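Hey Z.,

So I finally got round to the alpha-D-glucopyranose thing we talked about over coffee. Here's the setup:
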Amino acid sequence: MIQKYTFGAPFETDAVVALIPAASGTPAFGNFSADHGFSFAYDLSPDHKVYGLGEANRGIDKRGYVYVSCCSDDPIHTEDKHSLYGAHNFIIVSGGSDAPGRPSSDSFGLFFDYPGTMTFDIGYSHRDLLTVSCDKPDLYLYMITGEDPYDIVRQFRRIIGKSYIPPKFAFGYGQSRWGYTVPDDFRKVADQHREHDIPLDMIYMDIEYMDHYKDFTVDPQNFPDFPAFVNEMKQRDIRLIPIIDAGVKVEPGYQIYEEGVEKGYFCKREDGTEFEACVWPGMTHFPDFLNHQARKWFGDQYKFLLDAGIEGFWNDMNEPAIFFSAEGEAEIRAWMEKILQGELSFHSFDFSDRSKTLANRPEDYCRFYHDVNGKRVRHDQVHNLYGANMSRAAGEAFVRLVPDKRILMFSRASYIGMHRYSGIWTGDNMSWWSHILLNLKMLPSLNMCGFLYIGADLGGFGCDATEDLMLRWLALGVFTPLMRNHSAAGTREQEFYQFDHPEDFRHVIQVRYRLIPYLYSEYLKAAQNDDLMFKPLAFVYSQDRIACGIEDQLILGNETMIAPIYTQNAIGRPVYLPEEMMLVKFLPDGTLYQEIMPAGHHFIEVALNEVPLFIRKDRKIPLVKAANRVSALDMETLIYIGYPDALYELVED
Ligand code: GLC
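And the result:
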């Protein structure tokens, strides 16, 4: 059952598409206050778990920390961080149906449809207290009760609309790096993959392809005939996937800038002038994605690249990221001058903290406004909708411009609702072992919030990757819908052919391609049935106390369980099987190791160049022969592995 409560005068975010009548009475769980801002409080018992929050730090069970929904351009995802790039305000409080004597009605879901900053203190200030709060008492609250957390999630998914489905090639492998600039950089990537017989479907174009980082331009020197270059790659069955940044360069004569100013489609300061902030191109204006006309206008700009043969995009810097604004710079300058004049005393750590806030200053987000159907709304109050509406602009445009085609798209910033238009990549992570685990833990949480086409920068964006980290991370990436290796300029090059054993990478990527029929089928089922592709063990084995606490193994689809290795120099890992399962190891010679293992605790050995997968009892999965591109996969080679008498419904389109 879903009940909708209205507090104050909420902003219409369009996150929920189903019509839910207003509930009468007071919500069944927790205490609410809308006197000073808004707050919700609920007493947690020791066995309560709290799921959800999509792209957020820490565990699958979010209990024990404080999370702040505020789309943030922060690349250092250490354990102490409260905000990442996405803002997904859906949680499920699970009474733990495994707890004897507890009624199952003790579980409920909450979606706080509020686009400003929102704080989820989930047993941080007090271990036994959940509080959710925000400054303005204007929001919709959806309270969902159901049989168990899994049922609650599926009810929620039904009211937010169907998840985005990408084209099939998007299930192939994509190579990316910030720094590919000239056509030969891209040709080299293509050549090397083909020469080493490593499957490849996409090469990503980072900001260097543009003319001075101007959206919807290409560098005329490097790409004098861009459509021809796109076509050259397509002849090799490789799609080029360009990045699009949110900020539009301020440059007289640049058509998009001129048009945006003329039509009033950029966000404005209080005095009505266009707000300016420095991002990659230098000073930029931010398109007003919350204004439906501006959204249409910006979406239409993608035509330039679609016409050149482009079939996929990644939308970036759309929190929006701000390196600095003139106002912010002036404030910092004034502060520093006071220190230099001796008017202010300071500590060196204070100095470094203040100067850091030049980028993405909260003050800057209060300096510009949106025009929402003629009403002026200050950005900070709707901050978490900005990136989501950039992708919505594009998604709506694709329906108009290329109605018969699916376009690949994923975004960095997001809000629930964007899942209908786009996928997500989880932004600038690091080549850290802990980030393999963080990647794993985010998958089910993102699915709970509707995001199915998801993935992390495999191998890590910042810092230097090692061959073993890359291999272990890929053995997880094999299963994520978005499988992309991306890294930052200046870091160690991490294309597979840069390492000593390209043949190991060939093998791992081939495993991915062998599994595409299964992954695609499970993806389509999840999208069509408002289901999860990745489930915590607790959602499937809710009566098993041990399984309910496991966070480094996931149920993938309905047939398999994954248990990746995320520690360096490990020869394998402990695994808990809630029921009998078949361990399958994809061995580097292309053969399979298969062993039926009884329920219980095990230690499995997995070499660096092997990919482990468990098939659940009485299930089987399809497998094809590998090919070096998705379009070359041959369904005639399809076999099934697992329990031979099982049935499997293969969904294709
Ligand atoms: C941002 C993106 C990253 C990209 C870089 C340059 O940091 O998150 O993926 O490579 O900008 O465009």
